[in-house]
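Bump. Still looking for phenylalanine--tRNA ligase structure tokens.
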Amino acid sequence: MGMIMDIQKIKKFIDSLFDPEYLKEVNTLEKLEKIKIDFLGKKGIFTSEISKLKNLSKEEKITNAKELNALKNKFLEFYEKYKDELDSNKKPTPTKSDITLPVYDEVGKIHPLRSCRSRAIKIMKDLGFEFEDGPSVENCYYNFDALNIPKDHPSRNERDTFYIKESADSKEKRNILRTHTTAVQIRALESGKYSDNFKVFSIGDVYRRDDDTTHLPMFHQIEGFVVSEEASLATLKHFLLSFLKMFFEKEDLEIRFRPGFFPFTEPSVEVDIKFKSGNWLELLGAGMIRKNIMEKYNMKKGFAFGIGLERITMIKLGLNNMNDFVKNDLYWLKTYGYSSFEHICYS
Ligand code: DAH
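Sorry for the wait, here they are.
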């Protein structure tokens, strides 16, 4: 009798595996392994049935073997599925959260130049200045000629200025990467949008062939100019002081004017800022817009100033190497970047 195949027994065994009541019992990997041994082990019911195959006729052998194989696959399917489930249950899952653990802070920061740029824009707008833009690829007329910069001025030299490309044009007509945002002054005056009483500012990229700890070949300038009956060195100082106090968030800020020279302003001044240590640092250039420029656009009196964005950002953050701005060093950005959008405003 023992030699007669009992496929029914195997089927029953397999059916029982899918009985939910039974499954509840199989709650450990050990119990699952025991079932496997009961089925496929040396003395398992499957192994003992399959050993009977050899006594059967050829046809019977084929049909029974097929059936047995299908049952074995069904068993293995069951086994793998529950093994996976029990394996994943084994992984420890935290039951309580530890609120004393440090916060995992991987939020991006805003580059200080970006947030200080926005801060400067906000202050200029609060001071009543209107924004005007100009192109970074400028021509020599707006960048030099219209600003009284003589043809033989050193700043026109190819060693100082980026000329766009060699061309048949004379050097005076060639395009350059603008060397200062003062070029926007002429564009704004020429536009005819402004009459005798206005305040305009611009902010943007400028380029010079310079590269050391305090210079980059590309940097940013803020240009401001005011045309008004009231324009004077005194009102210029008032504006600059207001801007700088707000930018540096320092009420007792001190600045001083020293005589300077710019071809487009007369008188011209260099403006210094006083540090806590008592030392003065040169910060920006400014002056009364020259008569010949004012008259060309039928205007009477005006002042202008040009501020380096990198310079005031470095002072605000206490940096001493301008190259830090462009290093793409994430650690640096985490340290000096801003985490709030407080000052972000787009022009
Ligand atoms: N354009 C000057 C520079 O790049 C800065 C400057 C000086 C701008 C005096 C002005 C000014 O508007 O009046 O160095």
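The mean pLDDT is 90.

Edit: fixed formatting.
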